[in-house]
């Protein structure tokens, strides 16, 4: 997988070195394939085709991570301040296997 080449072969300083254990690499691949499968199943009627989850997997993982952190921040807000009055935007959130 091209994504694996980009993420696991460079250390914090940007040096080319595979610093992941085999177990971590396999777990990452499983989760990445979940994203690929999930996004490849999305049909776009305007172009009469499905998304190509393999081409967008890096962006999809990053977007999912941003959503995860936003949700954690919201949970912290609720813990400190209570539930906000207007939560209709949360009605469409669903959980799936792609949460890292």
From TrEMBL:
SUPFAM superfamilies: Metalloproteases ('zincins'), catalytic domain. GO terms for biological process: protein processing. Residues 7-76 form the Peptidase M13 C-terminal domain. One of its GO terms (molecular function) is metalloendopeptidase activity. One of its GO terms (cellular component) is plasma membrane. PROSITE patterns: NEPRILYSIN. InterPro entries: MetalloPept_cat_dom_sf, Peptidase_M13, Peptidase_M13_C. This is Peptidase M13 C-terminal domain-containing protein.
């Amino acid at each position: 997988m091209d994504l694996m080449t980009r993420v696991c072969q460079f250390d914090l300083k940007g040096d080319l070195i595979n610093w992941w254990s085999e177990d971590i690499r396999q777990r990452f691949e499983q989760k990445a394939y979940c994203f690929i499968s999930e996004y490849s199943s999305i049909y776009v009627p305007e172009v009469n085709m499905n998304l190509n989850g393999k081409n967008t997997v890096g962006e999809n993982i990053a977007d999912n991570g941003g959503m995860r952190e936003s949700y954690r921040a919201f949970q912290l807000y609720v813990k400190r301040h209570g539930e906000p009055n207007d939560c209709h935007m949360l009605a469409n959130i669903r959980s799936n296997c792609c949460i890292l």
